[in-house]
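Good morning,

Attaching, inline, the backbone tokens for the sequence recovery test we're adding to the shared suite. The designed sequence is right after.
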């Protein structure tokens, strides 16, 4: 592995941890994999892929989080019946799917955006 890539990968792991996401030490090395013509990002135990899909918020107020994890800080809410558009979806280490509904960044420098748990969407 080239030195520049190792530095970028270490920086991504640091950004994830600094952003409130705690990942196991061995999971700090992300990899990029090509799947069926679309880029799937693998970040340790988090797997993310781009999507373009409309959802409707279910029967409960859904918290919007700063990352694809239950422990990420809550930054907003979306109300039942509202429509949202998903740009990325990520499956975290707890096998929970989160959908990015805005300001989405998934790349070597980290994961950020406005994330909603998929179970709150239909």
């Amino acid at each position: 592995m080239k030195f520049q890539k190792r530095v970028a990968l270490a920086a991504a792991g640091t950004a994830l941890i600094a952003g409130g996401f705690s990942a196991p030490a061995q999971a700090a090395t992300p990899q990029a994999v090509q799947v069926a013509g679309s880029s799937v990002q693998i970040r340790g135990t988090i797997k993310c892929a781009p999507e373009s899909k409309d959802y409707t918020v279910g029967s409960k107020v859904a918290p919007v989080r700063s990352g694809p994890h239950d422990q990420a800080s809550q930054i907003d809410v979306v109300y039942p019946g509202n429509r949202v558009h998903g740009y990325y979806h990520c499956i975290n280490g707890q096998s929970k799917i989160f959908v990015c509904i805005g300001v989405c960044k998934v790349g070597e420098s980290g994961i950020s955006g406005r994330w909603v748990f998929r179970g709150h969407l239909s």
